[in-house]
Amino acid sequence: MSPSQRIAVAGGTGHIGLHIVESLLSLSPTVPFLHIIVLSRSIKPEKSKITFAGSSAPIIAVDYNDTSGIESILREHNIDTVISALYGDADVFDIAQQNLLTAALNVPTIRRFAPSELSIDSETADSVTMYYLKKRPILQRLREIQAARSGPGIPSFEYTKFVTGLVMNYLASGNPKSSGEDAHGHMFAHKVIFDFENGTAEIPGDGQALFWMSRIQDMGEFIAHATQLDVWPEQMDLVGDMRSMNEIRALAEAILGKKLDVTYLSEEELQLRLGPNPSSLTNVVAEVMISFARGEVKRSETYAGLKDIVKPVGLEQFLRTWWS
Ligand SMILES: NC(=O)c1ccc[n+]([C@@H]2O[C@H](COP(=O)([O-])OP(=O)(O)OC[C@H]3O[C@@H](n4cnc5c(N)ncnc54)[C@H](OP(=O)(O)O)[C@@H]3O)[C@@H](O)[C@H]2O)c1
Q1: Extents of the domains making up the chain
Q2: Locate the NmrA-like domain: which residues (predicted)?
Q3: 143-169 confidence digits (pLDDT tens)
């Protein structure tokens, strides 16, 4: 296989997707013939393309229920790689991604597909029922397609699962810096587990569980560079940092210069937080905390094939930037 050259990013207007697109555009000056398109359900007249670092990617309208329409666009642009950064309500998310894959498989130039993972590993996070279980069927299908297209004389096909941990930028929510909004990149501020602004933390379990996190900007860069690898493994992990909740507490207390008021939450207490809307952010966060408490996050390291190319910011540097 060879590096990706003609890449479609579905959901490239989104929180994480936009970082992926910008990082890909940053590669344009050094990667000849790189062509990026962004798939979106709607185009605003004033925003028909994404421009970054002197390069642009057109935003092209798609209907995720119309596979032949998506196929035509991928054909027209001779796309070889599809990266999904889709999200949306839990019940439509899998359908949209599966339709995207169905369309891609009909396009002869397509040889790579990355589904929308971009978090803790959906295949170990059994407790995140609303969203992450919805990420599993497409992975199963991708494995079957890859196996079916691995024989001699058959155009080969690769997929990869980008596992990045949670967005580290959440840990800058409420920071006191005048440029504090910049901490979030294209993500919104949201306090997860730690509320450094108010000096509190709600830690799942006994605090021994691992918290895996990466900066959203590093996620974009990692994925962009991954497109330039000759071979895609089935999983590529990015580990900005990974430490126990208690270790994070100690690090934060040292940087903030004050003790945090910490509540340890049992699984039963976290279950009580689940509300009636399965797609709500409250529910997803509560389920992710239960997943942490159950030890479903496994220790990992940044994918060896990229660790000398992408140097993610670690937690200490990140916290010092925004809290000291
Ligand atoms: N690691 C973490 O902490 C973390 C945090 C958040 C999300 N994530 C993961 O990252 C991925 C992307 O999340 P995100 O927050 O970046 O997503 P997002 O910005 O909420 O949505 C991404 C894009 O999906 C498209 N979309 C929204 N609803 C849709 C629907 N019903 N049907 C089809 N497309 C729809 C939208 O694009 P258009 O409107 O342009 O079509 C949107 O820009 C997901 O897999 C999510 O689980 C991880």
Answers
A1: 6-163+216-237, 166-214+240-298+311-323
A2: 4-277
A3: 999 999 888 888 889 999 999 999 999
> Is 16 touching ligand 1 by the criterion CB < 6 Å?
yes
Cα 151 to ligand 1 centroid, rounded to whole Å? 34
Ligand 1, closest atom to CA 89?
Answer: 31
φ and ψ at 167, to 5 degrees? -70, 115
CB 126 within 8 A of CB 198: no
| Residue-wise pLDDT tens digits, 60-117 | 999 999 999 999 999 999 999 999 999 988 778 899 999 999 999 999 999 999 999 9
Distance between Cα 200 and ligand 1 center (Å): 29
Looking at domain 166-214+240-298+311-323, its CATH superfamily turns out to be UDP-galactose 4-epimerase, domain 1 (3.90.25.10)
Tally of CB atoms within 10 A around 189: 15
Q: How far is the CA of 92 from the centre of ligand 1 (A)?
A: 11
Distance CA 143, CA 204 (A): 33
